[in-house]
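Hi R.,

Here's the chain you asked about this morning:
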Amino acid sequence: MSWADFRQIAQLVHAGAGIALTESKVNLVYSRLAKRLRAAGLKSFRDYCELINSTEGADERQAMIAALTTNVTRFFREKHHFDHVRDHLLPELAARARAGARVRLWSAGCSSGEEPYSLALTLLDAVPNAAELDMLVLASDIDPAMLAHAERGVYRASQLEDIPLASRRNRLEMIKSGNEMSFRIGDCVRALVRFRELNLLGSWPMAGKFDAIFCRNVMIYFDKPTQEALVNRLAACLEPGGYLFIGHAESLTGVRHGLTYVRPATYQKPAHESGRGLKWRT
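And the predicted structure, written out as tokens:
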């Protein structure tokens, strides 16, 4: 892989997904995309660059971006965020939902689904009849392969340890896959989650606002201008008083925004606007 190849790849990835690849990432790019070259039957990065820059290379561009992002997640990762939702958001949101209002949470960059299912489990712990109310979790990701995994809702038994015991007993189904045990997310949990393919740098097919947005460990890939643009788009999608949760490895230092710092990786929108609801445009 020549430097010219690397720069072409970096420019395309930044334009398509906002990911900033500095020259320090050259070895990572080489190791991850060498597999894509083999899968495409190509012998050089020059040929690969021609493919991804062609009209016929749209699917490969998607696969390239997926290969260059790290889908590291687990159930109830950074658990205090879910505790904050349970303790500070859900008492009011549950009362609103019981009065007929909409409640919407968004897992932006949901990877293989552990985060939105953790949110749904948190909802059900606080509001057992949440599926009968207008309460939903939107889960979006740029990678269709990750979304397919998430929609199946089947995980290794070793991933159970971070899920509260009551949820394991009441809302999961143990299954045997070959010689290994797995578990499936229960229907009552799946009913609260809607999965959608979405590029956070593209258009967003939603109208209405969210009570909380989880966009964690996504912005670590972005440069400051891209982070600032994204944070302000997310803030515009929040209900007044709504919360934005980011990853602890991320920082909004140097990013201009109108949110209020609450605690590490937790920000709140000032409560001075109105308008509720979420609809998907057709």
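Confidence is low (pLDDT under 50) at residues 274-282.

Let me know if you need anything else.
M.
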